[in-house]
Hints:
Strand order of the largest sheet: 2-8-7-6-5-3-4
Number of strands: 12
Bound molecules: pyridoxal-5'-phosphate
Oligomer: single chain
Order of helices and strands: EHHEHEHEHEHEEEHHEEHEHHEH
Amino acid sequence: MPAYLDYAATAPLRSAAREAWLAHADGPANPASLHRSGRAASQVLEDARERIARLAGAARREIVFTSGGTEADVMALRGLYSRARSSRVLVGATEHKAVLDTVRALPGAEVVVIPVQADGALRCDALAALIAPGAALVAVMAANNEVGTVNDLAEIGRICRTAAVPWHCDAVQWPATRSVQDIPADTIAVSAHKLGGPVGAGALILRGGPDLPVYTHGGGQEGGIRSGTVDVAGAAAFAAAWEDAERRREEEVPRIRQLRDRLAAGVHREVPDAVVRAADPNRLDSHLHVTFPGCESDLLLMQLDAAGVEVSTGAACSVGIPQPSHVLLAMGAGEAAARGSLRFSLGWASSVADVEAALAALAPAVARARRAGAATAAVRVS
Ligand code: PLP
């Protein structure tokens, strides 16, 4: 088994989620059907909705099931924009592409990018200066997926409320280690597979009720917002995974943090010139983001992979296309750092063995990546 340190990309399935999924995957499970099987499926779905609503501190009618975080983001952003009178959209500079590319594609939108500090946290002073009453929406994430930096959610909520501008919060990286109830946003995107649920399940939380327009036309499921037969087994497994994460939080999170800190200390020992981005307390307990000077991150990632250690360059969704990270560039890290960084992310099943395997592989992998990078540069020059 490889040492898996890429929970921010996706987490292994929790056994509670697997059991819930298996219990309902055989169906027949169309919750819109009127017969007994359909009613049973509807009961499972509404039970999952109820449990997710409780976890989110929301009402049942405020939960719209989606296929994951991306769809929840797109649904919220397009929906809020279509309701607005203004075309001014404020977006954090380090948002996930699901948010950034969606707001850029909104028809006629005037997109205003809110800068971040060197640690990646949104500059609330800039948000306060740029927001104008009547703006269409603000899109700012709870915590960044690459570096794990946590935003000042209370302050962002206060600024948006004062200006009466709706706030969409991408909280996809959040519930694996923190409570969504702490997010005072109007719409919140969550995804099952980041916390040990199945891929393909997620939700949009609509605080204050479902006042969004139709996202997909059809059978009128999900309060008429998202038509299409709902994945009952996925929703049940999502609820089971989230409950499991919440139930184990007091034990799980300190353990994850200790492992992450052990890894950070080891990285400094093995590669003394490595630079850790973002720092506690302003960071998720699951994330460790490191720049390795003189390395191309994809070369380093492949060296570690060959040694059985799985990590990420940060933005999993653009893997395969080596590009400098827009997150690090926004943090002012410079192009070389933005190309030479790795994200280690830990979660519910991470172990000391995973951390030690990564540390054992690190120094040789960095040395080889540096040599390979130098050789490539020499070929380019000659
Ligand atoms: N938003 C953030 C912050 C993410 O980290 C991700 C996944 O990497 C997404 C959105 C997309 O979520 P999903 O894979 O569930 O569509």
